[in-house]
Fold this protein.
Amino acid sequence: MKKPTYFFKKSHFTLLHDRIKTAPKIALFLDFDGTLVPIQKDPARCFLSEETKKQLRSIAGSQNCCLSILSGRMLSDIKKRVGIHKIYYGGNHGLDISGPDIRYTHPKALSAKPVIRDIKHLLQKEIAGIKGAWLEDKKFTLSLHFRSVEKGDISSVKRAFYKTVDRFIEKKLMAVIKGKKVLELAPYISWDKGKAALLILKAMKDKCFPIYIGDDQTDENAFRALNKKGITIRVGKSAKTAADYYLKGYWEVPRALDMLTITKQSAGIYEKKSP
Ligand SMILES: [Mg+2]
């Protein structure tokens, strides 16, 4: 794994500019939590700022950019939070996708739904006495959040989780995704945000140059899938990343989006889509 370069490093700008400029269209893939919005204790309180919404609308409306939002949230949740029509959305880390030319749910995700439901009931009992721990049922995945749990109780949360899910993991029915202060249970499938991004790229009518921005471990699969084809950017400096570039934090994302889209405009083919 090579070290990522700071996205705004001046000496890299020409290279970046040339790569974007020559591409007929860019396919911009964005993660949501930690990338477009700061992570909150309660994920229900994460909303796009008006400026970011405006910026995303402008990107979605431009002739030479296709926008996708890939999130660990449920598809309906992420669609509601972003609220822009005619763009691509991937919920549950890409297990559930919708967009202008695609509607896809991974078949194994559908069949795992009853198992997730059963585990949810078991886990609910296990964590009942731990203050601040709570479950989020996302239909195809299940998240155990512990951001609000006292430091001393975190080991109990993890113990309760693994005690309940271990047998499902051993049977290869389920897999664990470790996030930021969250343990997530997902169907045991060879599928991730990287595969989802490739599927969306294929569904796009035009040949697009992919750019992926994300902040978490689940985005690493997408970096690996896309970094030979396009530009990959990790939000938050991390020594262990497959991304080519990094940004210092979510607060730098709007500027990076501006730079990418302005660069594309300056290539002379930026036009507004006809309504
Ligand atoms: Mg994220």
Remarks:
- The CA atoms of residues 35 and 155 lie 28 Å apart.
- The longest strand covers residues 65-70.
- Helices lie at 13-22, 50-60, 75-82, 107-127, 154-170, 193-203, 217-226, 253-269.
